[in-house]
Write a structure and sequence with these properties.
four-stranded antiparallel β-sheet, disordered N terminus, 6 helices, alpha+beta
């Protein structure tokens, strides 16, 4: 049972949510008044992030921007999401220093067994409506990657298929098997 004190402590507006500092060890997203609770990256997700980040560094893409995990992305005036991994260009980083909310052009979600298909689909739509240009949905359980370049253009990648972040980062390419090794 949830105590009344706990209910009253929950934010009721996006502004309250952005200032909210929960101390329960969970991560949260905001979707038009709905608070979405989730666990931060697990070990599998960290290993995937490490493989992708290593490729990002090896390709010298750090000169173009940064690869960041669980970054707060203000999709609209009523939605704040935290993609597992996002790319921000140097220009976007400069704008965020000036207080701007920037939409990453390349986003990666690592799908866990707790993620519901309809919620993943909702988030996919939200990302593209907000301006994301490339979205990878990585499914560790079955070792597949869905690479979206729009809501109507998706490629399902397995085994030695190449996943590409083009047109955002044309040099960022990796075989599916290499993501999971």
């Amino acid at each position: 049972m949830v105590a009344t004190k706990d209910i009253l402590a929950l934010p009721r507006t996006l502004e309250e949510f952005m200032a909210w500092e929960p101390e329960d060890g969970f991560k949260y997203e905001w979707n038009d008044g709905e608070i979405i609770k989730f666990i931060g990256m697990n070990k599998t997700q960290v290993f995937i992030y490490e493989a992708l980040n290593q490729l990002f560094i090896e390709k010298g893409l750090w000169k173009l921007g940064t690869f960041i995990s669980e970054y707060d992305v203000q999709l609209t005036g009523i939605q704040m999401r935290r993609p597992d991994i996002a790319f921000l260009s140097k220009e976007q980083i400069a704008l965020t220093k000036q207080g701007e909310d920037e939409i990453p052009e390349f986003v990666i979600e690592v799908i866990s067994g707790n993620d519901k298909a309809n919620k993943v689909e909702e988030k996919t739509v939200e990302y593209f409506k907000a301006g994301v240009k490339v979205l990878w949905l990585i499914y560790p359980d079955n070792k597949t990657v869905q690479v979206y370049t729009s809501l109507k253009q998706a490629q399902i990648c397995y085994d030695d298929d190449i996943c590409s972040a083009s047109p955002v980062l044309p040099d960022f390419e990796i075989k599916v098997n290499d993501i999971f090794n």
